[in-house]
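Re: that chain you flagged

S.,

Sorry for the slow reply, it's been a week of failed gels. I finally had a moment to sit down with the sequence you sent. For the record, here it is as I used it:
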Amino acid sequence: MEPAVFLITALADVKKESFGTRLQTLLDQQIPVRLIFASLDFGEREAFDRLLKTLIGNHQPNVKVANLYDIFSTVSGVTMSTDTPTITEPNADRQQRVSHSDGTYDVQYLQNEYLLATRRYFANDQLAEQQTYQNNQLIQRVFYGANAQIQGISNFNADGLKETLLLNGRGELVYRFVREQQTVYKVMDYVNFTPLSGVYDFYRQVLDQVNYQDQRLYINVDHNVAFSAMLPDQLIFNY
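Prediction finished late last night. Pasting the structure tokens below so you have them in one place:
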């Protein structure tokens, strides 16, 4: 049987019983599986990694995982402007450290009891994420990779997530996702500068990067109608 690729558009996809069943069946048959974690909420990646460990067990050698940064890190984008955050020490009067059971830890920066920022570190002390606050309200999350390389930025307003910016390996902006409704995003393409009809059009570009035509493609059945219209000649399996 040909290799399989799962497109995961949200953490909720992984929580479906049918996802785990489909994945386990393929792994028991020693079929290589690639998981594309394409959630536009970059903050879901940490919980996704934890869930995945419980699902794949000792089948880890047969599973490859990629996120949006992994897929688009080598494409060309545009130079960032004022959207680019800088890694500077918050001007706080005190700090406090909060450790977690997995070895990660947070450093919170406070000024007059107001939370200014929180930095999350991996167990090896590498910076993983920084959250910035105004009047104790989250306004920005910056997600880092190796060598404190910024991979993505999420900006917030009083209504929650406002937009997400995806960067490449050179720190250039490649895609901007502006949230218009709960699950509806306007997608701005700085790679090809082509108008996209919506998030499913973007997902098609994601799949184009992984040669999905030669693999068994699995998607959440809730998205089947939209993907069938976007990929009319592709055989699609559901979970």
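What I noticed first: The radius of gyration is 19 Å.

Talk soon,
D.
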